[in-house]
Write a structure and sequence with these properties.
single chain; about 210 residues; mainly alpha; Jann2411-like fold; two-stranded antiparallel ribbon; 7 helices; 6 strands; about 10% strand; globular
Length: about 210
């Protein structure tokens, strides 16, 4: 039986759901990115940690996936392809470049399918988003990701999308909330410290 992945060190520090999803591959801008979504249960575990479903809901979906293994594998492939399109589009935005039209076409096609499932339901205070057919769909976690990606791309916050400046190809995307949009690194503890140490060594070498 498929089991929910027990990995608990997913990174959710990017600031927005589409960016967190794009970062499920590490060293994304390098020649050899490191894949973390290696099986359908990994995608489900990430979805639980991202707050897209409860653990009980995920276990129910995994039970369905057990009998629909080919479909689950296809969903994983689709999720990875979608993630790559989202990463390339947002990486281009972070660099001030125009995204490739094919990536936008892929996003629009997936968005149209996702939004066909969207509906408005009464909530304790007003109304809220809901999704029709979610209980039977193995790709339900992709729908809110697509909706929030569209909201981000049509917002006034595109200039706050950044990418780690590490020259080895970290590729980590983030939402820059600094006052003067000065963030450059995934974190100062990793790529930032490396760059700082390298600059220090360079200055020391020149003085020597």
């Amino acid at each position: 039986m498929l089991a929910l992945s027990r990995e608990r060190d997913w990174d959710f520090d990017a600031g927005l759901l589409p960016l967190d999803f794009a970062n499920t591959a590490e060293w994304h801008a390098s020649p050899k990115p490191s894949e973390r979504l290696n099986a359908y249960p990994d995608l489900m575990a990430w979805s639980v940690e991202a707050g897209l479903m409860t653990e009980a809901e995920a276990r129910s979906v995994l039970e369905d996936a057990e009998d629909r293994s080919e479909e689950a594998a296809a969903v994983l492939d689709r999720a990875i392809n979608l993630r790559e399109a989202i990463y390339r589009v947002l990486s281009a935005v972070a660099a001030g470049k125009k995204p490739v039209q094919e990536d936008l076409d892929d996003l629009n096609a997936a968005l149209a399918e996702a939004l066909s499932r969207a509906r408005i339901e009464p909530a304790p205070k007003g109304f809220s988003w809901a999704w029709s057919g979610a209980d039977q769909s193995l790709d339900r976690m992709l729908w809110p990701i697509l909706r929030e990606t569209a909201e981000l791309l049509t917002s006034d916050d595109l200039d706050r999308i950044g990418e780690c400046a590490d020259d080895r190809g970290c590729g980590y995307l983030f939402y820059d909330i600094s006052r003067n949009h000065s963030r450059r690194w995934c974190s100062m503890e990793s790529c930032g410290n490396r760059a700082k140490a390298r600059r220090h060594y360079g200055r020391k070498k020149v003085r020597g």
